[in-house]
Amino acid sequence: MPCEVEKFRSGVLSSGDDVLAVEEPLEIRLRDGNGRSLPVAVTMRTPGNDELLSLGFLLSEGILGSQDEVREVVHVQTFKSEGRGNVIEVTLRSGVTPDVDRLQRHFYTSSSCGVCGKASLEAVAAQLPPSLPASPWSVGPDLLCKLPQELNKSQSVFGKTGGLHAAGLFSTEGELLFSFEDVGRHNAVDKLLGRAMREQMLPLDGYILLLSGRASFELIQKALMGGLSMVAAIGAPSSLAVSLARDHDVTLVGFLADSRFNVYSGQHRIHRTSS
Exactly one of 3, 113, 116, 145 is catalytic; which is it? Predict the structure, then answer.
């Protein structure tokens, strides 16, 4: 979004233009087989791929388990001032019964934190799947170090605004399968999980999730709900993220750059030396 600003450069203040990352609210609703429309959450997001965001959110919250449970996903309301749909309704197939008690939390999700509305960390941990089985695959250091550059090439909006997070899904051969940008790091991951869910790719064991920023607790939680066993971040992991990754045998890499990284958990999925 274009924006007029005052720019200070080399001792001179002058008028100019800037480009801002768009941030707007999205309400996610769930319609069950009885026709009831239940509000689930409101999240601040960058418009675009709202259907995937909604699917990924419902997956990572443990409300849905697969695309087979979904009949349709539609925009049901439009803000006249913007001309965009800011309410998404996910209609379930007949016979699918969501966890109504979980839906009744009605928590608000900001663009900076995906677990702000949860009553306790125990409530988050309770919805996690069992620990992943030991995976026989592994990747080399050289391959990992090439991933940030590949993700950066896909960040078209970040290049213009500098204000978005990104999440990318890579194969073990280093191929970027798809990526998403958003003002909220958890939204970018939900969009990615929604795409994987729609394409019947779950669980995602055997793929690598790359985060453009830090690795926080809620992002590891979302990765677990998607069946991922390797998460790499260009930034730092938090202490809770490391603890959760170790508890569930997720390979967690931080400070990933072109020639270095740290491994905090799941070292067995990374070769000791370059090949």
Answer: 113
